[in-house]
Amino acid sequence: MHIPSPSWSRLLIPAIFLSPWASAVPCSSCKATPSTLQNSTILPYLDPSLCIQDRLDDLLSRMTLEEKAGQLFIKQIPAGVNGTIDNTTFVLDGTRNLTTAPLITEKLLSHFNVNNARSAKQMAEWHNAIQELALQTRLKIPVTIASDPRHAFADTVGSSIASGQFSKFPESLGIAALRDPALAELYAAIVREEYLAVGIRSALQPQIDLVTEPRMARSGQTFGEDANLTASMVVALIKGFQGPELGLTSVTTVTKHFPGAGPARNGNDSHFATGKDNTYFGDFLDYHLIPFKAAIAAGGRQIMPSYARPIGTKYPEVAFGFNKPVITGLLREELGFDGIVVSDWGLITDAEIMGVVEPARAWGVENTTELERAKMVLDAGVDQFGGEIRTELLVRLVNEGQIPESRLDVSVRKLLEEKFMLGLFDNRFVNPEAAERVVGNPYFARIGNETQRRAYTLLTNQADILPLRPKDGVKFYAQGFNASYLEARNLTVVDSPSEADFCFLRLSTPWEARGSPFRQRYHEGRLDFNETEKAAHSALFKACPTIVDILLDRPAVIPEIAEEAAALFGNYGASVDAFLDVVFNKDGWKPEGKLPFDMPRSMRAVEAQVADVPFDTEDPLFEFGHGLSYNRADSCGWKG
Ligand SMILES: *[C@@H]1O[C@H](CO)[C@@H](O)[C@H](O)[C@H]1NC(C)=O
Ligand SMILES: *[C@@H]1O[C@H](CO)[C@@H](O)[C@H](O)[C@H]1NC(C)=O
Ligand SMILES: *[C@@H]1O[C@H](CO)[C@@H](O)[C@H](O)[C@H]1NC(C)=O
Ligand SMILES: *[C@@H]1O[C@H](CO)[C@@H](O)[C@H](O)[C@H]1NC(C)=O
Ligand SMILES: *[C@@H]1O[C@H](CO)[C@@H](O)[C@H](O)[C@H]1NC(C)=O
Ligand SMILES: *[C@@H]1O[C@H](CO)[C@@H](O)[C@H](O)[C@H]1NC(C)=O
Ligand SMILES: *[C@@H]1O[C@H](CO)[C@@H](O)[C@H](O)[C@H]1NC(C)=O
Ligand SMILES: *[C@@H]1O[C@H](CO)[C@@H](O)[C@H](O)[C@H]1NC(C)=O
Ligand SMILES: *[C@@H]1O[C@H](CO)[C@@H](O)[C@H](O)[C@H]1NC(C)=O
Ligand SMILES: *[C@@H]1O[C@H](CO)[C@@H](O)[C@H](O)[C@H]1NC(C)=O
Ligand SMILES: *[C@@H]1O[C@H](CO)[C@@H](O)[C@H](O)[C@H]1NC(C)=O
């Protein structure tokens, strides 16, 4: 095998915006063999002229058990200030508090994810400092850095993160709303370019869970309710991130959460014991597999099992990461996936998160020891433990003869092969000045900004009130955003709805704050507004014609707003300026989005739905695919 040349779908992007990885020299020859290099001063696995399989064999033959164990973990670390390594202690290893450095130099980990945001230059400098540290280890194995999605305007910490300097798109629901695989591929190609520039080589996406239970807490980062639409989106994303083959300019993808985390009982999130069950009472497990089959066929490199456990299937009622019939039986043997399976974060160890100790997500096997959990996860067929650093457990399993060392070799080989394919052994540093130039450049930022506008989904437009045409003297009232955005457009703003000719109301889909601070990051519970809120909205609607804009991170239940508001938009993460550009049809911007899910009419209908069954909400308020256009003849190309 040789590394493919870096020439594929980066052609979508003007050359001046490509990160410097484009100039990396591919390993094309594969002519040398280890024996001809016996006398060379360079170790065979560090020699770029050798074939990957030979380099892998060489490296594996040199590794100690501890070095192998280190490869089987990926842990979140913070990017330090000013491009330096973070020196605060943040993770407990038995009785010791550790900082970043010993994870690399003592625990011998070489996979990390980073979720905080620094400037592009500082991210790149930090990445280089991490690679320098890895060069100090015996084998000099380069580090692979992963990230949760960080390109959405709306942020949910823990599943998508602060975008900082990166270009800002809507959440993936908004990409789905545009129904355009070419745009989805361009989105991924832009994210890839910005990642490459700062040294992020693994994307903890696409998230292809189907929103068959509308309360599902992580709906915002999915592609909605429909399996075929999601399948077409995941194929486009994998192509955009990885290219036709994984290579020097690829970002590897982690498709999640197998076999689909949509059927969450009551929508409760599976990070927490109250959300541990996926229920399949409609017998629709196969429907949730459709996008995973597409991801596998498209060459998606990594798959992450869901935290949840299945209820109502032929499979054991234990969390998917522990579930051998699901991981080895269904995913590997039936669906033919031979890539890397990385567990979701924290299956073994209880850990303090935001000041509260959260239990390990060993759903259905809570009473096992940590050692037993580690063995079960390996036996299930998982290659890497997410969010853990418990290398000593694997060493002990092998030393006690509970797991053969060859079992570790199977996973280590896949993980290291990926590093070779990404070119990390040969080209591990990035250029911080180039990162500053590439990340959030005007071209990428513009495509992100435009996508925010295009994804707007117009749900109602009474009497064709939209687009608005502000004439002199027209007065506006704003609620839910800063009226200075209107004043910046030289519009007249008043302090009360009764004085206004038009009112704006920006909302988010309701949710219930429950439990620990970490749990409150995941929006669970009811999807409707309470009586107090409804009364306040209604008073506004009665006082003046109101244009409502609601962030649909889940399908809101808002029949009263659809009835009473003058117009109603759904967005999936968009700036105030994007909203106003669409309202006023500025520069021709208009809503092009189509709903990626059904919007239920009532909470009673939500509760009557079967969690795993798509499109079973009774008499939906708006159906999947709904989305109006501007009808008025004057609504195109107006320079507002
Ligand atoms: C290695 O070097 C020795 C001494 O210089 C030489 O005799 C031998 O042929 C070399 N082996 C290879 C494989 O080049
Ligand atoms: C980061 O750099 C800025 C500017 O050079 C400096 O003022 C600040 O003290 C630095 N912070 C740390 C923690 O080094
Ligand atoms: C962390 O420690 C290293 C040396 O161990 C030092 O170079 C670096 O500046 C420190 N970072 C901060 C933010 O203090
Ligand atoms: C680890 O550090 C945290 C603060 O970062 C502290 O609260 C905790 O007591 C420390 N634990 C140990 C065992 O040192
Ligand atoms: C989904 O795609 C499959 C395979 O292409 C096709 O048979 C099926 O009719 C599609 N379903 C819908 C609802 O479009
Ligand atoms: C979901 O969470 C709510 C609130 O904590 C709880 O009342 C409910 O029982 C949970 N559902 C399940 C199935 O555990
Ligand atoms: C774990 O043990 C507790 C009692 O110690 C028991 O109530 C519970 O049912 C057990 N859970 C499982 C999954 O076996
Ligand atoms: C994108 O939108 C942001 C506001 O959200 C604005 O500050 C920025 O200038 C825009 N960039 C481009 C290139 O249009
Ligand atoms: C609204 O924006 C203005 C101008 O940017 C700013 O001065 C003011 O503090 C903002 N108000 C709020 C409530 O954020
Ligand atoms: C607002 O009015 C000022 C003064 O007439 C003008 O300079 C500015 O360009 C206008 N801004 C917009 C967005 O029209
Ligand atoms: C309604 O929801 C708001 C939050 O938007 C909350 O502050 C208020 O207490 C709730 N009222 C009732 C009656 O539940």
Write the layout of secondary structure elements.
Blueprint: H1 52-62, H2 65-71, E1 73-76, E2 91-93, E3 96-98, H3 100-105, E4 111-113, H4 120-135, E5 144-147, H5 172-177, H6 181-198, E6 200-203, H7 227-242, E7 252-258, E8 277-279, H8 285-297, E9 302-305, E10 309-311, H9 324-334, E11 340-341, E12 351-353, E13 356-358, H10 370-380, E14 385-386, H11 391-399, H12 405-421, H13 432-438, H14 442-454, E15 457-461, E16 475-479, H15 484-487, E17 492-493, E18 502-508, H16 531-543, E19 546-551, H17 559-564, E20 567-571, H18 576-583, H19 603-608
Parallel strand pairs: 1-4, 1-14, 4-5, 5-6, 6-7, 7-9, 8-10, 9-11, 16-17, 16-18, 18-19, 19-20
Antiparallel strand pairs: 2-3, 12-13, 15-20
Helix pairs in contact: 1-12, 2-11, 2-12, 4-13, 6-7, 6-13, 7-8, 9-10, 10-11, 14-18
One 2-acetamido-2-deoxy-beta-D-glucopyranose is lined by residues 530, 532-533.
Explain how this protein is built.
The protein is of the alpha/beta class and 640 residues long. The protein folds into 2 domains: 145-442, TIM Barrel (Alpha-Beta Barrel); 456-622, Rossmann fold (3-Layer(aba) Sandwich), CATH 3.40.50.1700. It is 31% helix and 12% strand. The protein is built from 19 helices and 20 strands. The structure holds 2-acetamido-2-deoxy-beta-D-glucopyranose (NAG) (11 copies). One 2-acetamido-2-deoxy-beta-D-glucopyranose binds next to loops.
In brief, what are we looking at here?
The protein is an alpha/beta fold. The protein folds into two domains: 145-442, Glycoside hydrolase, family 3, N-terminal domain (TIM Barrel, Alpha-Beta Barrel); 456-622, 3-Layer(aba) Sandwich (Rossmann fold), CATH 3.40.50.
